[in-house]
Amino acid sequence: MFFKNKFPFVLYFDDFTDRVPQSIEFKDTYATDGKLTRGRKREWQEIIEEVFKRSNQENLNETQKPLQTYMSVDDEDRKTDILSDIQSILNDVIISEWKNLKNTGGNLADDSTNLELILENKSNSVFKFKVKDKSNSNKSRTFSINSRSKGFQWFFNYMVKLKFNPNYSGDTLENALFLLDEPGSYLHSSAQIELLKELKKVSNNNQVIFCTHSQFLLDPKTIELGSIRIAEKTGSEVKSFNFGDCKAKRDKGALTPIYQALNLNFAHDFMDDIVILEGITDFYLFELLKKYKHISQHIKFIPGAGAENSSSLISIAIAFAENFLVLLDNDIDGKKAKIRYTEYFGDSIKNNIHFYNTKNSFKLESFLNAENKRQLKLISNCKDVKKSLSFLYYSKKNKEQKKFIQSIAKNDSLVLIIKVINQISK
Question: Which domain holds residue 121?
Answer without folding.
Answer: 18-163
